[in-house]
Please model this.
Amino acid sequence: MKSKSFSPELMAPAGNLIHLQTAIHAGADAIYFGSSQFNMRARARNFSPDDLVPMVNRCHEAGVKAYLTVNTIVYENELDDLRQLLIQAGEAKTDMVIAWDWGVIDLCQELGVPFAISTQGSVSNSAGIRLAEKLGAKRVVLARECSLEDLRQIREKSSLEIEVFVHGAMCVAVSGRCFMSHELFNHSANRGDCIQPCRRTYEVTATDTETGDQLIIGEDSIMSPSDLCALPFLDQLIASGVHSLKIEGRKRSPEYVQVVTGVYRQAIDAVMEDRFTPDRIQNWMEQLGTVFNRGFSSGFYLDIPGESAWSAGPSNQSAWHKEYIGKMVTTPGVPGSVSLKIEARNALRHEKVVLNSVHTGVAFFDLNWKEDQQEAIQGTLVTPDAGLNFHPGDQIYAWIMDSKGDKSE
Ligand code: SF4
Model:
C-alpha cells in the first residue's frame, strides 16, 4: 500500500525501438522521443513521422504516455514540414509535444495539440510558468539551473505541471544558451546538432606579460560537467510536488535506458512506500555506475555546482561495455523455434550476455551451457535457456567488465 498520495511520472528517453520497449519494461510512466527533423538530438536515432502511430500505439497499449520532442529553433522554410509533423502528432494521439520555438507553440495552439515548454526555454520562475499557462501549455520543463528551493517555491505559487531532469548529461552553459558548437564547427546546439566542444581536452595557459613565462592552468576536459544524478535526494524532489521526473539520454545504449529507468522506478516506489533507505540508495548508485556516466553530481539542486561537479575525464566512467556475439535465427528444420547463431566471435561461459530486441527490449540472461562446455564456437547454433521470448533478428551481446566502459552511444 502506498503511503504517499502523489507519485510523480517517470519519463524515459527513446532513441530507437529497442529503447522504447526497454523503457516500457523497465517501468517508465512516459517515454519521449524525437522526430528526425525537429529535436535536440539530431544525432540520436530518431523516428520518422510515419513511425509516430505505431510508436504511440505501442506506448498506449502498455499504459505509457508518449511525448514528441520538437524542441529546436525552426526556420521559415521549415514551417510546412512542421505543420505536417504536428498534424501527424495530433492524429497519432501523441500525449504532448515538447517545444519552445514560438512557431511550434503557435501551431500547437492552432491545431489543438497538447504541448509543454521545453527546458530549452530556460523557464526558471513562477512568473514564466504563469505565462506558459496563459499560452495553454500543459506543463513546463524547468531549466536545469533551478535549485530544489526554487522548485519548492515555484510549486507553492503555481499549479501547472512541472517536469524536472533527474539523471543524465549537464551542459557547462545555461540550458538553451550555448553557442560554442555553432561558433566553432557550425553545428548548432539549438538545432539539436551539438558536437560537444565542452567535452574535449584543452590546454589553458596564462602568460606573464613581463617575463613571458607561461603557466599551464589545465590540460584536460576543463569544461565537462559530471552527469546529474538526483537519486540520493529523490525523496526531497518528490516532496516538492514535482509532476514528472525525466531521464536524459536518447543517444545512450539500450542498457543505459534499462538500468537507469529500472533504478529510478524502484527508487520512486521506495519513496512512496517509505522504503527509501541508505542501503538501497547505495545499491542503486552502484547499478547506475555500470552504464554510461561521466561521474555524478547533484547539478544545481542542492548548491551551485562546485569542484566535484566536474567530470574526471572527457567521457564515460562505466567499467562495462558490450561486444556483439550473434543474432537469433529460425532453427533450421524447426519452424517456430529460434536459436542463437554465434557470428562475431566465440561466446565464453563466464560472460554475461544481453539481449537487444525491438520486440522485448533489453534482457540480461545466461546461455544454456553443457556441464563441461567453456565456449560456444563461432558459426554454431546455440539454444538460450532464459525463459525469454526471442525473435528472429534479436541481437545478443557479451556484457563485459573492463576499463573500456559502455561506449555504445
Ligand atoms: S557544447 Fe557542451 S555546454 Fe554547449 S550545448 Fe553542447 S553539450 Fe551543452
Remarks:
- Residues 171-173, 178, 180-181, 189, 194, 196-198 surround iron/sulfur cluster (CB under 6 Å).
- The longest helix spans residues 254-272.
- Residues 162 and 330 are 48 Å apart (CA to CA).
